[in-house]
Amino acid sequence: MKKQKKLICLSAALALCMTVTGCGKEEEPPVNYEQPVRTLAMTMQEYDEQGYLDCFTAAAKQEFVNRKDYNEDFIQLLYPESQSGQKLSMSIVSHEEIGSKDIEKLEKDYVKEFSHRIKITKAEKLEVRFKLYQKNLKRTDLKDIIVVRVNNIWYIYGSVIDDFDFIADAGIFSDIIRSGDDSD
Questions:
Q1: Is residue 128 assigned to a domain?
Q2: pLDDT digits (tens, 9 = 90+) for 35-57
Q3: Which residue, 142, 148, 141, 129, is CA-closest to 32?
Q4: Cα→Cα distances 96→76, 121, 123, 125, 158, Å
Q5: Measured between alpha carbons, how far is 134 from 116 in angstroms, rounded to an integer?
Q6: Of 69, 124, 150, 178, which has the most beta carbons under 10 Å away?
Q7: DSSP designation for 68
Q8: Whole domain around residue 79: which residue ranges?
Q9: Domain of 173: which CATH number?
């Protein structure tokens, strides 16, 4: 009887371990500095303008929203819906930690560009590949993006990204995105 209980307990423990660990290739959890770029791609797919803007620093968001050509539905222009279905993916091709001297330069450049101070505790330069899949078509855009940690939160450094090469390839909305509404 005791052997049978031990065998049952051992089997239950083994079954629990298998369900917790799973089988097959496990996806590695994203590194913290990757999070704003992953969120950027996800919010584009979900057409979440506010989530998209939250990937950028407060001054960059404010500067973008205050632009004369700002459109609340800008994600529709960046990532137009397709009736045939589409998927956007991103991958980090390479990354490089930015040293303290270059971080100081980023802080000074930020003041020049946005008239706001920022205290960067860490920074990474990323090469990011965005892929847009539509029906039998695949378009890509490779971007160099700097991410910075401010108050223990990672953001995309610089102005809000308002253009992707896969849109220009398609010719869809690319003129609107680049020039804004000039009808004023």
A1: yes
A2: 999 999 999 888 899 999 999 99
A3: 148
A4: 32, 15, 9, 5, 17
A5: 40
A6: 124
A7: T
A8: 33-179
A9: 3.10.450.100
